[in-house]
Amino acid sequence: MFFPSEPFRIKVVEPIRRTTREEREHLIRESGNNVFNLPAEAIYVDLLTDSGTSAMSDNQWAGMMLGDESYAGSKNYYHFEDTVHDIFGFKHIIPTHQGRVAENLLFSTILKEGMVIPNNIHFDTTRANVEYNGGEALDLVIDEAYDPHLDHPFKGNMDLQKLQATIEEYGVERIPLVIMTITNNSGGGQPVSMENIRATRALLNRYGIPLFFDACRFAENCYFIKEREPGYQGKSIKEIAREMFAYGDGCTMSAKKDGLVNIGGFIGLNDDGLSEKITTRLILIEGFPTYGGLAGRDLEAIARGLQEVLNEDYLHFRISQVRHLGKMLDDEGIPILKPVGGHAVYLNAREFLPHIPQAQFPAQALTVALYREAGIRAVEIGSLMFGHKDPLTGREVYPELELVRLAIPRRVYTTMHMVYVAESIINLYRQRNDIRGLKLTYEAPVLRHFTARLETVETSLENA
Questions:
Q1: Measuring CA to CA, which residue among 242, 266, 240, 239 is closest to residue 255?
Q2: Percent of the residues in the chain that have a pLDDT greater than 90, as a whole number
Q3: Do the domains at 21-50+311-456 and 58-308 have one common CATH topology?
């Protein structure tokens, strides 16, 4: 079996501790069966998220020593701005302390009650920011995205027929912009093709609707385009990125993913008037426009990280490490979403635990069991995160996909850590009939999965 080789040497190490099963049993019970409530020091391999969990390079750490902490006009801001302009091409660059603030600034500025935001699939914070500001978040991904067994090269693509029907149903005046999430996180980290981006742009041009990107994993998306789409094999990642963003009017970015940093983000856009409105709001809640809630050293780390993420040796290892984990699981018959995406392997919880109905949160039950048995923290992408009550009928609405995401932090874990993860999941699969469903004992009105508390259900329902 091919083992991907790390294109870096390890210079600093952080000890991690293996807990006992008894310790983990106590901790997960005290956490209300919610892995977000666990202390990080009690985790052996942490695959909760790839956001803000990257290991920075020696070059980035060196740059942090050059931090200019001037309140206005920091030299690091200008390096950051030049770098973002060079890759993304947008006229206005507005720094923020992370991606969800970029989303909040954008949607709180453009949305009015009754408006809709089409996307391929919204992720949790994007959806929450749209809905909190009075909009409706619509998922218009191609139907192939919902078939976990289908090996389609670009399952993140926007369904253009759905998009056109949405525009005709709601009207241009109710759609301030359309978003493309690249790669499509909620749908399994699946990429969007350049052809689909180009066609989406052409469709929106007919109606005068702007196109924005959720760009937090843009480099991984570009790597898939280079690998899978005819005509791009000879192009660099930067060239592909420049073409991709040239079709857009703006983007939000969490630099905590493909910026290879632990904090930071930005908004990029071309519209002068919208930029002025967002900047005014930024000053109110984040800070002066040349720091946007970040220290100068953080801006420098982002600038250097955005350059490093374009390196094809890095991207090849990054994608290969994730694929390798997926292959180890697939070879043993573990149900996963295919093809394996760019930043994570997604377990198909409905097939892993067919005896647990969606009403009893099978993906969350699997997430809890994985921590209890192996000290591995993953995250549920299913009924707990995206389930909701229909406002008209009061009935619970469940998402199409019920997944557990194993998000791989960048440059953090070795291939042998991936072997440990795979062997743990394979062992858990053999004991799957012992895993029980869960029921809520507490939920918040927004983003409930972050703070929810649950308890074990001893008997299963017949049907969800």
A1: 266
A2: 86
A3: no
